[in-house]
Amino acid sequence: MTEKDNSISRESLFEAIVKEAGEFYSLIVKVSSLFLAGSLVFLNYLKKNQGLEYVTILFFGWFLLVLAIALAAFIRLKNLESGKLALSGDFEKARKLDENKELMSTLMTWSMIIGITLLLIFGYTNLT
């Protein structure tokens, strides 16, 4: 295999990774938004006299879903900045931007999972 063949396969691999990452962040935003909007729609069907603990569960679930959406937007913004820096040859600055993205991605994913779980708990315990 020539060096050119290797660079083409690396480019294809990079494109596939970028595409998958973009689809993953889009999925997080869509699912979080769906549960957030769905919980707002079904508020009319919930019991009227809910205890403070149930309202706290609802608000904390909403907060975590909004956090997941915000983190997805922030990570995508940092991906664009990092990509621009890498294309211009400034790999050190790009690497610094990438340092915390794995932690933020994990936080984003768990925020969505816990937020959805809290909304499901709230809905299950409060539907009339």
> Number of domains in the coordinates?
1
Subunit arrangement of the protein: single chain
**For the report, how would you describe the main beta sheet?**
none
Unreliable stretches: none
Task: Quote the average pLDDT.
Answer: 83
Cα gyration radius (Å): 20 Å
Number of separate helices: 4
Structural class category = mainly alpha
N-to-C terminal Cα separation, in Å? 67 Å
Helix content: over 70%
The counted number of beta strands is: 0
Tell me the fraction of residues in β-strands, as a range.
under 5%
Shape: elongated
Name the helix and strand elements from N-terminus to C-terminus, one letter apiece.
HHHH
